[in-house]
Amino acid sequence: MSEAGTEDAKAEDIGELANRFLQACAQRKILATTAESCTGGLIIAALTDIPGSSSMVDRGFITYSNDAKMEMIGVSAATLDAHGAVSLQTAQEMAAGALARSHAGIALAVTGIAGPDGGSEEKPVGLVWFGLALKGKPVITEKRNFDNRGRDFIRRQTVRHALEMGLKALG
Question: Which InterPro entries match (predicted)?
C-alpha cells in the first residue's frame, strides 16, 4: 500500500472511531465535549466531520495555553504551578472543567507534548495525559507515551486513544 493509502486508512480508522463514539452518545442520549491542548481541536474536528454530529456534540474547548486552560475550563493555577500543563492533575481538571462548562454528559480531555521540541527527560515528546469525565462518575485519567515518530503521528494517536477511551466508558 502506498504511503498516501496508509494515511487514508488511518483517517478512516479515526473517522470510524468518531462515528462509533457519536453513536454511543446518541444511544445514551448525551452530548459530548472536548478539552484539547496538544491536538489543537483534532478530536472535535473528527467528531464534527460526521454529518448529523450537531445532535451529539455540544462544544470543543481548545486550551492550548495555560491561560486558556484556566480561563475557559477552570484548571487551577496551583495545579499548573505544581504539576505542569502535561500532568495527570491537569488532565483531570480539564475533563471535569469541560463537563461543568458545557451541556455534555461526557468530556474527553488531552494534554501532552507532540514535539518536535518541548520535551524533557521527565516529560518526553510523545507523553500525553488523557482525562475522561462522565456525568455522575469520577474522572478517569490515563497516560500514554507514544513513539516519537513525528508531531502528526503523536497527534493522530492521541485522537485515536481519546475516542477509544470514550467508547470504552460508554460501553
Answer: CinA-like_C, CinA_C
CATH of 3-149+161-170, one of 1.10.10.10, 3.40.50.10680, 3.90.950.20, 3.40.50.10330: 3.90.950.20
- At residue 1, the pLDDT reads 39
Question: Residue 86: phi, psi to the nearest 5?
Answer: -100, 90
Q: Taking the model in full, what pTM does it have?
A: 0.93
Exposed/middle/buried for residue 158 (C-beta within 10 Å: 0-12, 13-18, 19+): buried
Q: What amino acid occupies position 100?
A: A
> In whole angstroms, what is the distance from residue 129 CA to residue 89 CA?
9
Q: Closest by alpha carbon to 108, among 79, 130, 138, 135?
A: 130
